[in-house]
Amino acid sequence: MSSEKQRAVILASGGMDSATAAAVARDRGYELYLLHTSYGQRTETKEYECATAQADHFDAADFLHLTADHLSKVGGSSLTDEEMDVEEADLESEEVPTSYVPFRNANLLSMATAYAEANDCDAVFMGAHSEDFSGYPDCRPEFFDAFQQVVDVGTKDGTTISIEAPFTEWSKTDIAEKGAELNVPYDLTWSCYRDEEPACGTCDACAFRLQAFQNISMRDPIEYAERPDYTED
User: Fold this and answer.
1) Out of 3, 128, 168, 169, which residue is the most buried by the measure of CB atoms under 10 Å away?
2) Which of 115, 119, 122 has its CA nearest to residue 161?
3) Which residues are annotated as a binding site?
4) From the annotation, which residues make up the binding site for Zn(2+)?
5) Binding site residues for ATP, as ranges?
6) How many angstroms separate the Cα of 8 from the Cα of each of 25, 33, 81, 104, 225?
7) Tell me: the pLDDT tens digits for 203-230?
C-alpha cells in the first residue's frame, strides 16, 4: 500500500481522548475508520451520538458500531452495573477504581484488530493515557506492547497492523493542549461516567477532563451540572 493513503482504525469511545487520537492520526496522514462499541455503559446513548458526530467531522471512510454487551453481563464495574455507585472524583488515588471494566481494552482492541485486518488497515489507534494507567491495568504501556505481539502472531502472514497508543506518557492536560492545536471538536465529545446530559462534573472522568481544560485556560464546551475548580494550588 506504499502508493496509497494509509488507513487507521480509531477506537472511538465518543470521548475527548479518542477524538484527539483521531485528529493525531489524521494529522499523520491516515484515512480514518472509526469503530465505536456499546457494552452496556451508563452513557452509551450519548457516547454513540458523539462518536457518530465525530465520524462526520473527520470525514471518516467508514464508521462501524458494534455491541460488546458480554462486558456488562460479566459485570464487576460501576459503568455497567446500576447497583454499584460511580465514585466521587479522587485524582490522587492509585487504586483500581470501580469504573474499571475487567479486561475491556483487550476486548476492544481485538475487535479493532479484526476490523483493521478485514479492511487492510495499517494501524489501530487508542487514546489511553498516563493518568488512565495509574488505575486501569489495561492502559499500561506494557499492555499495549504485549498486545502488539498478539497482533503480530495472530494475524495472517503479510499483515502489519501497528497498535498506536500515542498518549501513554501524556497527561490529560497534554491531550487537551494537543487537541486545541488540532482543532478537535470537543463539543462533540463526552466523558462523564454517570449522566448523559448534563455531565455531572464530579466523577473521575469529569474531574480529569475539567482539570485539563482549566490547566490550559480553555472553557470546556459541554454542559455540566457542576464545574468545580480542579486546578492545583
Assistant:
1) 128
2) 122
3) 12-22, 192, 200, 203, 206
4) 192, 200, 203, 206
5) 12-22
6) 7, 6, 32, 20, 36
7) 999 999 999 999 999 999 999 999 999 9
